[in-house]
Amino acid sequence: MGWSERFWVNAIGFQAVWWGSILLGDTAAFAVLALLALHFACHSQPMVEARVVIASGVVGFSVDSFLTIAGVFTFPSLLLSLPPIWLLFLWFAFSATLRNSLSVLRKYRVLASVLGAVAGASTYIAAAKLGAVELSFGYLATFLLLLPVWAVLFPCLLILTEKLEESYVSHHH
């Protein structure tokens, strides 16, 4: 097991990336990329991890892009009605937790759905209170809208992670 796979390193690393991204925006992007590169370099299965991080990150960013285009989110640095680059990198960093600090939730899909709903929706409220995003429908309505989104999205990301792992193993053994 590489050191970036250890529960506390992975969990605390993601929290540092979240706070840096929310508070510094695009300014944090290069630091996040450097941490992701370090994560891959120190991972025992960097190719599988990269597949999961890229695929899950793109899925998550696509969901946020849809919500932004739909008018749920407005970002201060909005360009072409898409979320800022720091959010894409934040999604990559979050995806680096799916096989590591959040992997225990794979066995508990209902719990993953409930925790994903509450924690996922809450992060947008926190980000809005810190000025990283504006919620067009206010805190409560956005929270209620994001609950079912994250109740479905988080378990789907865990399933995607499993499928990508299985696919990689079956093609490389």
TrEMBL record:
Pfam families the record matches: DUF2878 (PF11086)
Keyword Ribonucleoprotein among UniProt keywords: no
UniProt keyword annotations, A-Z: Membrane, Transmembrane, Transmembrane helix
Segments passing through the bilayer: 16-40, 52-73, 79-98, 110-127, 139-160
The keyword Acetylation is annotated on this UniProt entry: no
UniProt protein name: DUF2878 domain-containing protein
